[in-house]
Amino acid sequence: MRVSTSNFYILSLASMQARQADLDRVQRQLGSGLKLLQPADNPGAAASINRFQATLAATDAFTANINRANAALGAEESALSSVGDVLNRVRELTLQGLNAGQSAESRRGIAVEVRAMRSQLMALANSVGSDGEYLFAGYKVTTPPYQETAGVVSYVGDAGQRTLELSPGNNVVVADAGSAVFGSAREGNGVFRTVAGLANTGSLVVGGTAVVGAFIPDTYTASFTVGVDGVVSYSVTGAVSGPVASGTYADGDALSFAGVTLNLSGLPATGDVLRVTPAARQDAFAALEELAAALELPDGAPAQRAAQVNRLSRGLESLDQQLLHISAVRASVGARLQVGELVADAHAGAKLRTQEALSDVSDLDYAEAATRLAQQLTSLQAVQETFSRLASLSLFNYLR
After folding, report:
1. Has residue 93 got a pLDDT over 60?
2. Which of 113, 279, 297, 382 has the fewest Cβ atoms within 10 angstroms?
3. Residues 219-242: pLDDT tens digits?
4. Domain 34-190+279-363 superfamily per CATH
5. In terms of Cα–Cα distance, which of 202, 204, 214, 137 is closest to 175?
6. What does 55-107 look like in DSSP terms, one character per residue?
7. Is the distance from CB of 232 to CB of 222 less than 8 angstroms?
């Protein structure tokens, strides 16, 4: 077969260009570390790469949400820990105030510290997170949630609970509204509240209270009468239930009715009353103000001291409910932090598996590529050498 000179040059050039292209492709693969330099190289693998990269991007977004959630919940947990410290300090002060050895002046000094703790509590309720948003404001994150007017603390936030998505369909609350944290505890012992009549003139004091069986919700009034023989009798009447109990009372007896048990001490006067009502919700600021006001009551006469002890004891009960509620909120925050850790671990494992799959599809095998590079170089050199030798052949060269 005859091969013209021009055809020889064309074929040789095409062969060298093809090998040069192969060599260039290998060099670019080695430079980038990727098997695929463009989707057309392997459309199926390119689609898998896009899918894996989308999965990794979504995982990174969820991980960022987890970090934000952990920061917010960590700030809330820290604030709640300080709230617990404040309430425990107020509890210590209340127990000091209940001590019979305290004077009226020392109790007023204790009341000053209780109000200082109340101010500290308000500062904590208006805590700001690392993102500059108020922790307990609900959705109104740019406005302090608690404001004080004429000595009354009011919540001006809303009941919204901010959430973040930690994984598909898995949303976690990252901030509790102040109304749920500082305004949801029950007063009294958490089930009912006991109040001594303001006009009581005896020395009757309510100590511990308890629920025995099931409390029947109603407003009960226990009235006391002292007979001419000194025997104290009582009768308990419910606003709805009517008469529910009656009997005689001696110092130290317990009064029980409708699931209520009141441990009493001291002696009442005729006409003295105790009222028992279902426990309503009380915010922490009102609870602390009630204790401060009780500490400032006069205590010179036995009846005055009994009135002060009754209010302080009931205030202490309510304070314990505040502490229990704060502990429950902290436990909830801790559980949510734990969820974040578990989801973060799951994301880390899934990300590692996705990265491995992506690496299998996209990452270059350097040993194999280096071998191909050497082969392509050898092939190109062989073509170039062949062309050089054949191009120099001619009849005139032979005749010379």
Report:
1. yes
2. 382
3. 999 999 999 999 999 999 999 999
4. f41 fragment of flagellin, N-terminal domain (1.20.1330.10)
5. 137
6. HHHHHHHHHHHHHHHHHHHHHHHHHHHHHHHHHHHHHHHHHHHH-TT--HHHH
7. no
